[in-house]
Design a protein that fits this description.
Helix content is 28%, strand content 22%. By secondary structure, the protein is of the alpha/beta class. The chain has 2 domains: 1-42; 43-283, Protocatechuate 3,4-Dioxygenase, subunit A, CATH 2.60.130.10. The structure holds fe (ii) ion (FE2).
């Protein structure tokens, strides 16, 4: 017998019974709920349902408890749009292969350090992916080249990284199926505030999957999947200085953002970072 599953099931049942008693749930409502769950399964939308019920983030928080201590960079959910084997990029890194005339150019830079003593981590791997200025990921958008706005890079000898990109836009998560219909019915929107996803790996440290949110996004306080954490907000600064523009090789004002990642020395039993770093070296 699976005792853990038995205990979890008992608690879920207790809570369901409380809700049924509190709201005096009717047989019609139960039938609708069961029909809804059947439709979610047929549409393969259970991961999306888990996201909008804020379950995915809750599970990530307890799984990566060590990264929620406030000293190291907080973990966050990977989401469904990660792709393995993003191109390995050498400085100066530009993850955007087609910049639209309307796109805001963005340079993101910072340092990867140990959360224990702040020492810089050279050769840490940053794996980055994001939506474009329209809120579309390349693998959902036939107009973008393969692996656009995705890339892997290494920190330099001072633990620093920098990449050129564009400011991503907010986007709506799949709303064409039963989960979207459900959100509409309960008066919730499907918007996610603009963000950039990261995976960080360094031998001897816990790997971290996270995302940084663009400050001032209209949905920053109302993410459809509840993933925003105050420590993960990226502050953008606009630069219109012609000398700086010339130095960066850009012809219009651009944005910069600084963010330092703090990795936690490896927790016993978690060897993820080691595996990732080894893969990266092998694929160079
Ligand atoms: Fe995303």
């Amino acid at each position: 017998m699976n005792e853990r599953l038995n205990a979890i099931t008992s608690r879920v049942m207790e809570h369901l019974h409380d809700v049924i008693a509190e709201f005096k749930v009717t047989e019609d409502e139960l039938r609708s709920a069961l029909d809804f769950l059947t439709a979610v399964g047929k549409s393969e939308e259970y991961p999306l349902l888990s996201d909008v019920l804020l379950v995915s983030v809750a599970v990530d928080n307890v799984t990566h408890w060590a990264e929620q201590d406030g000293n190291s960079t907080a973990s966050n959910v990977e989401g469904p749009l990660y792709r393995d084997e993003a191109p390995i990029l050498i400085a100066p890194v530009n993850i955007c292969s087609v910049e639209g005339a309307e796109d805001d150019i963005l340079f993101v830079s910072g340092q990867v350090v140990s959360s224990e003593d702040g020492s810089p981590l050279a050769n840490a791997v940053l794996d980055v992916w994001q939506a474009n200025g329209e809120g579309d990921y390349e693998n959902e958008d036939p107009n973008q080249p393969d692996y656009n706005l995705r890339g892997r890079m290494l920190t330099d000898e001072n633990g620093r990284y920098e990449f050129r990109s564009v400011v991503p836009a907010a986007y709506e998560i799949g709303k064409g199926g039963p989960v979207g219909e459900f959100l509409k019915t309960i008066g919730r929107h499907a918007w996610r505030p603009a963000h950039i996803h990261f995976k960080l790996a360094q031998e001897g440290f816990n790997s971290v999957t996270t995302m940084l949110f663009i400050e001032d996004d209209p949905y920053i306080d109302d993410d459809a999947i509840g993933a925003v954490k105050s420590s993960l907000i990226l502050q953008l600064e606009k630069c219109a200085d012609p000398d700086e523009m010339a130095k960066r090789g850009v012809e219009r004002p651009f944005y910069t953002a600084e963010y330092d990642f703090k990795l936690r020395p490896e927790t016993t039993g978690e060897a993820r970072s080691k595996e990732n770093s080894t893969d990266f070296v092998a694929s160079k």
